[in-house]
Write a structure and sequence with these properties.
Structural class: mainly beta
Number of domains: 2
Strand content: 35-45%
Largest sheet: 12 strands, antiparallel
Number of strands: 26
Radius of gyration: 28 Å
Distance between the termini: 35 Å
Helix content: 10-25%
Number of helices: 5
Length: 438
């Protein structure tokens, strides 16, 4: 046994003295020989990084919706309009012979942490009635516009309070409910719902002829550096339109699974550096790039000479990973870093976002790592497949990668300045590739 420990110690010592270390941001380690041949790395790769436009997003199937607006001094003004269709609580329930009290829209916040921006900012929200019912063909993507009556039927000016419960009337009692935004709707709209007749209430289709739905629209001109957005769940327990009547009675209209809803995203007045990158050549390279959710922008990562190491020899990929870091000082408590990022690829046909095969693996990564102060992605299977296609079939599928802030889980209007400097020790963007010669 003592000889075994002695041999192990000698081997370890040999490894520490023979294996070359490299701190460049792009390097390869030959795991087949554990670096003993002195050829454990190369820094011959080039990485190109730039900010490009983000695809439009399908928002009618996201878990929640957003309300609010943020005026970021660098990333610009970004806001959301959220559209909702409501369902009948029951068919034929006519209440117009009673006495109307009021009608209130309740939108329950997703959680205390589902927000972005400064919750001390005052936001100005307006509620409008839709001109037409939502359909799959006309409303579903973030870049689709949808018409509404320009006369507001409700408004809210104040802070988004995600922490405190509120008190509402429930039949004859006052009860406390989870943090929820309550907006009293106009008398004209209240009477429209209250006076619905038996024909209006005979089916969901007839009800949609009477009431097409609502949209919540923010005032889009907050002071620079202010504003907030928060997540709301219209499927939540306390979200609804409630008609109060006869002092102790009520009628609720809910958003249910069959109800349509979607969000429309807007980004404007971005810094000139962001707009410059979005119109730059595909071969352009920048040492700072930008990520912004709600279709604000994503980062394109290209490694154009990836196959150079396989031109004179066949190799097998053992591991490939990318490390992403934020620009120091570019985030704070009001504008924190995203909880996670996604590494995607361009679709072969459309160029739109497509998952890489590693995204379905437990080791994929992408969550913020406080120790690393960044994000690490395992993209081994994706790179393996690229080399298989190239070495076996002569096909170059190396179309680059996309780095984005996810649109769901969580839904948050996050943004991030990405440090994409190259060959800076333990900084910037790093691409690490481990391989064996065949």
């Amino acid at each position: 046994m003592k000889y075994f420990f002695l041999i192990s110690f000698i081997l370890i010592g040999f490894f520490l003295t023979s294996c070359k270390k490299k701190t460049d941001n792009v390097f390869l380690v030959n795991e087949g020989t554990i670096g003993f041949d002195g050829n454990g790395y190369t820094d011959s790769f080039t990485i190109l990084t730039s900010t490009i436009r983000e695809d439009s997003l399908k928002t009618d199937s996201l878990s929640n919706n957003l309300i609010g607006v943020i005026n970021d001094p660098f990333f610009g003004n970004y806001h959301v309009r959220s559209f909702f269709q409501f369902n009948l609580p029951e068919l034929g329930k006519v209440i117009n012979t009673a006495t109307l009290d009021s009608v209130v829209l309740y939108m329950q916040y997703t959680s205390k942490t589902a927000y972005y921006g400064d919750l001390n900012s005052v936001v100005d929200l307006q509620v409008y009635e839709l001109n037409n019912a939502l359909t799959a063909a006309t409303a579903g993507y973030s870049n689709q516009s949808y018409g509404y009556n320009p006369t507001p039927i409700g408004s809210y000016i104040g802070k988004l309070n995600l922490a405190d419960s509120i008190q509402i009337r429930d039949l004859s009692k006052k009860v406390k409910i989870a943090p929820t935004l309550a907006i009293k709707l106009s008398a004209a709209f209240a009477n429209k719902l209250f006076n619905a007749n038996s024909t209006d209430l005979s089916s969901q289709a007839d009800f949609l002829n009477l009431f097409k739905g609502l949209v919540v629209v923010p005032n889009v001109n907050p002071v620079s550096g202010s504003g907030a957005m928060a997540g709301v769940s219209m499927y939540a327990t306390f979200s609804r339109i409630r008609v109060y009547y006869n002092d102790t009675m009520q009628n609720d209209f809910r958003v249910i699974d069959e109800s349509r809803r979607f969000s429309q995203y807007f980004v404007s007045n971005q810094n000139a550096e962001i707009t410059k990158q979005k119109t730059a050549s595909i071969k352009a390279n920048f040492d700072t790039t930008f990520l912004q959710s709600l279709t604000g922008g994503k980062t394109r990562i290209q490694i154009p000479y990836l196959f150079n190491i396989a031109k004179s020899k066949a190799i097998s990929i053992a591991k490939a990973e990318i490390i992403i870091r934020p620009v120091a000082g570019s985030y704070n408590a009001i504008s924190p870093l995203p909880a996670r990022l996604l590494m995607l690829k361009p679709d072969a046909s459309t160029g739109l976002n497509a998952s890489i095969i590693d995204a379905f693996e437990p080791a994929y990564g992408g969550a913020f790592n406080a120790t690393l102060n960044g994000y690490k992605f395992n993209i081994t299977r994706h790179v393996q497949q690229l080399f298989i296609d190239y070495q076996r079939y002569g096909i170059n599928n190396n179309k680059g990668l996309y780095l984005i802030i996810p649109t769901d889980n969580p839904i948050a209007p996050s943004r991030m300045m990405v440090d994409t400097r190259k060959k800076i020790p333990n900084a910037g963007i790093e691409f690490k590739l481990y391989y064996s010669e065949l």
